[in-house]
UniProtKB/TrEMBL annotation:
<keyword id="KW-1133">Transmembrane helix</keyword>
<feature type="transmembrane region" description="Helical">
    <location>
        <begin position="44"/>
        <end position="70"/>
    </location>
</feature>
<feature type="transmembrane region" description="Helical">
    <location>
        <begin position="14"/>
        <end position="32"/>
    </location>
</feature>
<keyword id="KW-0472">Membrane</keyword>
<protein>
    <submittedName>
        <fullName>Invasion protein</fullName>
    </submittedName>
</protein>
<dbReference type="GO" id="GO:0005886">
    <property type="term" value="C:plasma membrane"/>
</dbReference>
<feature type="transmembrane region" description="Helical">
    <location>
        <begin position="76"/>
        <end position="93"/>
    </location>
</feature>
<keyword id="KW-0812">Transmembrane</keyword>
<feature type="transmembrane region" description="Helical">
    <location>
        <begin position="105"/>
        <end position="124"/>
    </location>
</feature>
<dbReference type="InterPro" id="IPR007360">
    <property type="entry name" value="SirB"/>
</dbReference>
<dbReference type="Pfam" id="PF04247">
    <property type="entry name" value="SirB"/>
</dbReference>
Length: 130
């Protein structure tokens, strides 16, 4: 049992670190996008967010397996999955949509709102919608 707790703790901390890195990259890249920075064209800055998000997804799946709670079985995790998908879609709109600056800002704020909701679900594990 002690070994499983150690694995859980390590994976959880890695997951939290990837969340922090992913959010920081999103905010920084969004700021660069608004300013029209040439840094966004750097290969490493185009690849790094995808690598971080892949590790984030894999650590989330690992945590789900370790705690034996799964989307579409446990309501809070289903809602968290929906929140993460909404975050991804709005973040993509904020970064890639060929719309005006105001549209991008609304998408950015909306993405962060869904992220806060996902964090609330992760901490409280209480169902809100389903």
């Amino acid at each position: 049992m002690d070994n499983m707790y150690t694995v859980y703790t390590a994976v959880k901390h890695f997951h939290l670190m990837m969340i922090g890195l992913s959010v920081m990259l999103f905010i920084a890249r969004f700021g660069m996008k608004l300013k029209g920075s040439a840094l966004l064209q750097k290969k490493w800055l185009r690849i790094l967010p995808h690598a971080v998000d892949t590790l984030l997804l894999l650590s989330g799946i690992s945590l789900s397996i370790i705690i034996s709670q799964y989307p579409f079985v446990d309501g809070w995790l289903t809602e968290k999955l929906v929140a993460v998908i909404a975050y991804i879609l709005l973040a993509a709109l904020a970064m890639k949509a060929n719309r005006g600056t105001m549209f991008r800002i609304f998408a950015f704020v909306g993405a962060l709102g869904w992220l806060v909701f996902a964090a609330k679900l992760a901490v409280l594990k209480r169902v809100v919608f389903f």
